[in-house]
Structures are given as C-alpha cells and as structure tokens.
DNA sequence: TCTTTATTAACACAGTTGTACTATAAAAAA
DNA sequence: TTTTTTATAGTACAACTGTGTTAATAAAGA
C-alpha cells in the first residue's frame, strides 16, 4: 500500500512481499476480504496500543494530549507507517457496500479518549457541547491526515502541530496554556 | 463512481453508462488518465461555479458563508453528486505518484474565499493567524466530508450544519451571531 | 458528385485480478 | 513406523483491465 497504493495491494503482491506463494497465503486467509479485515484491525489495534501507552506515561496532561493527537497523523506520528495505512483503508472504505464501522477505528477511540480526559481535567470551556466538539475534532484529525498526505510540502509536521494547538486552545479555558 | 465505487469507474463501464462503445469513448479521450482528468476538473469547476453563484446572491453575509460551506459537503449540498464525486477523486489521489495539486481543488478555493470574506467583513477574532485558520477550516471540511460519507447515520445533515456553525462562531467575534 | 473529415463500433492483445484445485513436503500424533 | 495434520507451492480458470488497430458509417466541404 505504501509503495504502490491501494491498487498494488493485490493478494499476489502481498504474498510476494511476505515471501509466500499465492497458495500459502490463501491457506491462512481464505479470501481477500479476510486478509484486508485482518490488516485493518491490526493497524487499528497498534494505534490504540500506542495511544494507551502515551496516556499511561508520566508526563503532564497537556503534553500527553498533544502527543496522542499528533500520533494519529501520518506526518507527525512516531509510529510511522500505521496512521498512513489507516488512512488508506479509510479512503478504501469510501465505496458503496464497503462501509467500515467507526467504532473499530482506533483514531475515533483516541479522539473520544482525549475529549473525556479534557472534560475530566475540567479544561473544557463552558457551554460547549461535548458530542459536537468530539465530532469536530475527529473531522479535523481526519481532514489533516488526508491533507497532509496529499500535500506534505504545504502541510508540514510543524504546521500540523500548530493547527492542533490552535484547536486545543480554542476549546480549552484561558487558564490552560 | 456513485454506484460501484472507484473500482467500478473503468473505461468500459463509463462508456456503457454514457451509451457509447469502448472505441467511441476512446475517440474523445485517448487514455483513461485523460478521461479522469477531465472529470476531475469538471467537478471542481461546477463546485466553484455553484460557490460563486451563492456569493453573488443578495443574502446577508452570514447566510452566504454558511451556505457556501454546506455546499461543499456530500450530505448537505444542493448540488447533489458533485461533492461526493470530488471526495472520490480526492481519496483516489491518495496514491503514490498520483498526487493532484491542491490549487485545482474547488473546495480549497471556496474555503480561502470564505476566509478572506470573513476578514474583509471584520468578523474574525483578533490574534488569529489567517493562514492557520484557513488550513484548519479546510481540514475540517475534508474531514466532515469523509466522515459524513462513511457514516451518514451518525453524521446527519443537521449535525454537520451544527458543527460548522460552532466552528464559525469559534473564529468570529461575539457580536456576529 | 467526389473527397475528406468526424464519428461510431467491433475485435484483438497482453496483462492482472480473485479464487479454486491439486500435489508435495514437513511436523505431529498414533 | 504409520497415519494424520499442518504448511507450502504450483497451476488453471474465468473475468476483468487499459490500450491498439481496423473497418464501417455519417457529415461536411470542394
């Protein structure tokens, strides 16, 4: 996927990349859909694990939350390949009859996690609707992921971080900076 | 594209949908890339035209701006198919060596237009970086487009409008409501 | 009327796709 | 040792892909 795009992710190419024959690969995965589903869930799990690890570290909350959000984006993730591949699957799902559920999206879980943490810390400005703010942040993350992948030059890692900081500041109280 | 997804957009299927033979279609478009480029630009142009039309209407600025932004999203556009197809092309571009330039994206032009209008009207809060706010709004629009297409049930048209209104209010002065 | 151009259709070619089936080798169990 | 799983590889098939070529038809111009 990273080298040849979605079209290159054929069963044959994947088998070749894995050093297996076509028959061998199909011994483990009886269909392409099964293989794709496994990969999709694997990527989601890895992202979730990485996010949990950051949350479990002993930094201050502000740093944690920023680091988590940056970890979800292709340009700024230390994980490297996973957020990019996740977006590939996401765009692949933009197909009739192939819609993947949101709940199994590690990024959505991470965003919800970030928001409930901000709420628990009493960082959120008054009169904000948490549901709407969660979906707004989730959309921002997905949009940044898409844009930074399509236009890495204009939307650099530093730029992405600036935008996320601006957004966080806009939903957090003045005192938190 | 709308019926069978990106994979269904083969030269043969398009010819059939257009009521032409394969040879006839290739008389006008010598390659698939040429055909795709034409369609991509056509969609972008239509969106731009629609946006210009709204800006040229005689409503009050607040209404215009909201209407323009809603027009860029699949669920809320009165244009109907174009924003959805545009997103298909956008996700199609998430492929190595196939990156389409941002400048020819009608949606990006529209967002820039919205921001400079807000600035001209003196609606924007003080101390905001216009460049960053433009990219933030552009990412939000693309994210909303992606999410509402993948999850039309949770992210309904009304919900999308609420989110956009919240975002506009967050970057505009208190007096503008 | 004759000739040139525009338009349509049909077929062929080489390549790729997902899937199914079969034979072979290694490992484990009896 | 024999038998049964586990694992790997190879091949075949039908369907599709983009592209190229060639023939036939309609329209327009000289």
UniProtKB/TrEMBL annotation, chains A, B:
Gene3D superfamilies: Tetracycline Repressor, domain 2 (1.10.357.10). GO terms for molecular function: DNA binding. The keyword DNA-binding applies. The keyword Hydrolase does not apply. Keywords: DNA-binding, Repressor, Transcription, Transcription regulation. Residues 10-29 bind DNA. This is TetR family transcriptional regulator. It comes from Planomicrobium soli.
């Amino acid at each position: 996927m990273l080298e040849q795009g979605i079209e290159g992710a054929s069963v044959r190419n994947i088998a070749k990349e894995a050093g297996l024959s076509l028959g061998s690969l199909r011994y483990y995965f009886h269909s392409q859909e099964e293989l794709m589903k496994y990969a999709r869930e694997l990527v989601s799990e890895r992202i979730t694990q990485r996010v949990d690890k950051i949350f479990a570290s002993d930094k201050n909350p502000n740093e944690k939350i920023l680091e988590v959000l940056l970890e979800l984006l292709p340009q700024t993730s230390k994980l490297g390949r996973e957020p990019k591949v996740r977006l590939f699957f996401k765009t692949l799902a933009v197909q009739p009859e192939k819609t993947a559920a949101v709940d199994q999206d590690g990024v959505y879980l991470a965003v919800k996690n970030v928001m409930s943490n901000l709420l628990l810390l009493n960082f959120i400005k008054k009169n904000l609707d948490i549901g709407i703010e969660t979906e707004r942040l989730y959309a921002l993350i997905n949009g940044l992921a898409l844009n930074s992948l399509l236009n890495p030059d204009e939307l650099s890692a530093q730029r992405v971080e600036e935008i996320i900081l601006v957004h966080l500041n806009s939903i957090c109280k003045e005192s938190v900076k």
